[in-house]
Amino acid sequence: MLRMSSCCVAACVLLVGGAPVWAADEVPKRKSGLWEITTQTRAGGQAMPMPMVMQVCVDQKQDDVTVDQEPGTPKPDCSKMDVKRSGSQVTIDSVCTHEAHSIANHMTVSGNMTTDYRIESMARINPPMQGVSAMDSTVTGKWLGACKPGQKHGARTMAGMPGVGPGGKFKMDPELMKRMQKQMQEQYGQ
Fold first, then answer.
1. Side-chain half-sphere exposure of 6, counting CA atoms within 13 A
2. How far is residue 76 from each of residues 12, 44, 69, 94, measured CA to CA in Å?
3. CA distance 11 to 21
4. Which DSSP helix (H) or strand (E) runs through 103?
5. What would the pLDDT profile of 131-153 be if each residue is shown by its tens digit?
6. What are the b/e assignments for 108-127, b being 16+ CB within 10 Å?
7. 177 in the Ramachandran plot: left (φ > 0), alpha (ψ -120 to 50) or beta?
């Protein structure tokens, strides 16, 4: 049975889908503009109820596709970061610490970064985070065009999620958080 709060899922998705900043010449850079990002996650062998889909405004000069998080969010502390490039594919093996949990992550980044990309990630968490010791995710990005007027790098829009609007930072409504937790508990048990 999956025992995981929505906050834990969000933290793990950031870590599974992200690694700390690499050397500037190694970071895959997305084309500037509005990107649709779809994240599908499996935690503890269970698929999350639905993929997370959002739109993110990207400035190529500031971009790091491996740390697709709010600007100003602390980056994880990593003791290992092995990066290998083979043609247009980049493989990253990392070991990072987040809130006393060691997260060993194997990530593959592929795509042309001007119209699309794909990140496949396999993370192992020790000690388990709320009972979850393994989390795998697939993140796909599709370029949509120019950012919307007034949007800056990192601005996110997520359909159906109050608090995530054009140019806004994520602010989870407490009632929405309770409903999401209840839905996950009903679907996966406690």
1. 17
2. 11, 22, 11, 11
3. 17
4. strand 101-111
5. 889 999 999 999 999 999 999 88
6. ebbbebeeebebbbebebee
7. alpha
Question: Taking a C-beta distance cutoff of 8 angstroms, is the pair 66, 19 a contact?
Answer: yes
In whole angstroms, give the CA distance from residue 37 to residue 157. 10
pTM (2 d.p.): 0.71
- Helix, strand and coil percent figures for the chain, each rounded to 5: 15, 45, 40
DSSP conformational letter for 71: T
The better pLDDT of the pair 101, 186 is held by 101
Note whether 94 and 84 are within 8 A (CB): no
Strands 156-157 and 46-47 turn out to be unpaired
Structure tokens at 33: 């503009």
Contact call for residues 69 and 78 (beta carbons, < 8 A): no
In what helix (H) or strand (E) does residue 12 lie, and over which residues does it extend? Answer: helix 6-16
d(CA 41, CA 6): 12
